[in-house]
């Protein structure tokens, strides 16, 4: 697709690993998804295979770089999980994920399980679940002291179970290469040791769709429903059997369905639910020129060139980077209001 040409300004990508010569020379279209939350980063490559052999097989690891000219940024390693050949026109689609999932799933990561955990810290529970699958666990410090008296995993895969317990605490359980990370939103890359500098975006002086290489489009999404300002939850005193209610914030309140075993856990659940609801408020969707420094969990700053209601810092939820010979290198970004 012409992205692998020497230039100081042209978009460029590079693959290292099995089949790199064919992929780099005959890549026609690519897409990389970097998402916050439980979704693993994914890379999709479309390759013209006319008269070609020697493509990599499922399970092979590719290293991906993207950027401009000689200024390429390493976006990590991706393991091939699916290869889809097409007869006419001769082509192959390669799908790879940043998580080290094997097609044969030797460790049973995708199997549904039913089991119970009692009197264990959230951090230890997390390590117990992910370590047998070959991941190296990374856990935020605040979860080391959070004790769970009773928790059931009922007919859930381990990934779904981890996602659920993380979501209930406004956290993220996500595979990142050979790591499996449990962290608060906005801290996933930090806990893996990767620094994320903010990305500042400026509108070009001639921001017209005809100027595809520089054009930026943005849309603000404000939910029409009234945002809650407080959360209530019930907890039961194990000594007396009496039920009590705690509240965090102010009216209007949301009531949590679960009853907690002590006041501290109920209060923490209310605080986490309130933060989560605030994060699910205003969001912004942007289409802009490709920028390899845009990453999920990072901060996007829309400067003074944007309308007043869009200016400020936004927490990036998802980045979809694409490249082809026609549209060049573009990114779609979804970001939430920083609260």
TrEMBL record:
Name of protein: Phage protein D
The organism's place on the tree of life at top rank: Bacteria
Species of provenance: Marinomonas aquiplantarum
């Amino acid at each position: 697709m012409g992205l692998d040409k020497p230039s100081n300004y042209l978009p460029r990508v590079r693959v290292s690993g099995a089949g790199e010569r064919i992929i780099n020379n005959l890549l026609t279209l690519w897409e990389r998804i970097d998402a916050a939350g439980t979704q693993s980063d994914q890379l999709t490559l479309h390759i013209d295979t006319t008269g070609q052999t020697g493509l990599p097989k499922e399970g092979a690891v590719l290293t991906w770089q993207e950027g401009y000219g000689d200024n390429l940024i390493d976006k990590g390693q991706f393991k091939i999980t699916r290869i889809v050949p097409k007869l006419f026109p001769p082509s192959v689609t390669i799908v790879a994920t940043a998580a080290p999932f094997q097609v044969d799933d030797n460790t049973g990561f995708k199997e549904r399980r039913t089991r119970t955990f009692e009197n264990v810290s959230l951090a230890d529970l997390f390590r117990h679940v992910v370590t047998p699958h070959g991941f190296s666990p990374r856990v935020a410090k605040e979860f080391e002291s959070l004790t769970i008296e009773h928790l059931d995993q009922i007919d859930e895969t381990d990934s779904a179970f981890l996602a659920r317990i993380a979501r209930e605490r406004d956290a993220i359980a996500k595979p990142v290469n050979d790591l499996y990370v449990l962290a608060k939103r906005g801290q996933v890359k930090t806990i893996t040791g990767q620094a994320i500098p903010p990305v500042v975006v400026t509108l070009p002086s001639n921001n017209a769709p005809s100027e595809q290489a520089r054009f930026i489009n943005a849309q603000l999404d404000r939910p029409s429903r009234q945002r809650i300002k407080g959360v209530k939850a019930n907890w039961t005193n194990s000594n007396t059997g009496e039920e009590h209610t705690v509240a965090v914030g102010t009216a209007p309140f949301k009531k949590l369905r679960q009853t907690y075993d002590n006041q501290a856990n109920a209060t923490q659940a209310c605080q986490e639910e309130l933060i989560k609801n605030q994060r699910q408020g205003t969001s912004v969707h942007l289409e802009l020129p490709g920028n390899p420094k845009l990453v999920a969990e990072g901060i996007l700053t829309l400067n003074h060139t944007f309308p007043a209601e869009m200016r400020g810092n936004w927490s990036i939820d998802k980045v979809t980077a694409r490249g082809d010979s026609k549209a060049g290198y573009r990114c779609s970004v979804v970001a939430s209001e920083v609260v």
